[in-house]
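thought: fold this chain, then report.
action: predict
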Amino acid sequence: MGTISLEGLEFFAYHGFYDEEQKIGNKYSVDITVTTDFSEAARRDKLSATVNYEELYRITADVMKRPARLLEHIGHSLIEEIRRAYPTIGAVEVGVSKYNPPVGGVCHRARITIKG
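observation:
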């Protein structure tokens, strides 16, 4: 077993609890770590025997295009889509951050982490 991670994926998207957030948009960051057995890929140098991180990026970009109210929903959707594409993986951990969230003061970013 091992892990495959994509860190610091950045998107401009239209998520947020408030309607205004969904209109003006914001910058988001996503981190993904997949636990899987990639021993065959390592031995045989075969992409088809592992999780393709280009596909992970595409899945993430597609999910980020769909407006959502909560970061938790985005994380959950990412895990569902990744598991649909790679049903044999062991675990998925997703972190989603929103830059400059509307909290009434200075906050660089809000972040959730979800495992599934």
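thought: worth noting. Residues 71-85 form the longest helix (15 residues).
final: tokens above.
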